[in-house]
Write a structure and sequence with these properties.
Length: 136
């Protein structure tokens, strides 16, 4: 098991459950729509299996024993609700979890351009989290 993880904006529930699948539909300029590429890819990957199966939608599984986690998302991210729900699920399981939400950011936008302040801030938070948990 790793000493710490950074699952940024995780697709932790492929059932399209969560407010941001609807409020950020056509607002997220990366994933764009809840019925777009992600949904089509999910159906291919799931190959007829129940979409609530924790192997496809980890938010429905047991998160006890997970390593400390820092989760990063944005207010325009289609997966904002997924990220928040994973954060809550980890905390309920007694796992140390930190949630970072960036204003106006779409899905994983904090990873795209290291010249913007949000990217530097996000990776600074992730670095500090890893330093704390990995002893560097």
């Amino acid at each position: 098991m790793p000493g710490a993880i950074a699952p940024g904006t995780p697709m932790a529930d492929v059932t399209k459950t969560g407010d941001s699948f609807y409020t950020n539909d056509m607002v997220d300029n990366v994933l764009v729509s809840r019925d777009g590429f992600c949904h089509a890819a999910t159906l291919v990957y799931a190959h007829g299996h129940d979409l609530r199966d924790p192997m496809l939608s980890p938010v429905y599984g047991d998160m006890h024993g997970f390593p400390p986690a820092i989760l990063t998302t944005g207010t325009r991210d289609l997966l904002l609700s997924n990220t928040v729900r994973v954060h809550r699920k980890l905390r309920e399981a007694g796992v140390e979890a930190q949630l970072e939400v960036f204003e106006g950011e779409s899905h994983a936008q904090y990873q795209l351009d290291d010249r913007v302040p949000e990217t530097r801030e996000a990776f600074g938070e992730i670095t500090a989290f890893f330093d704390k948990h990995l002893g560097h």
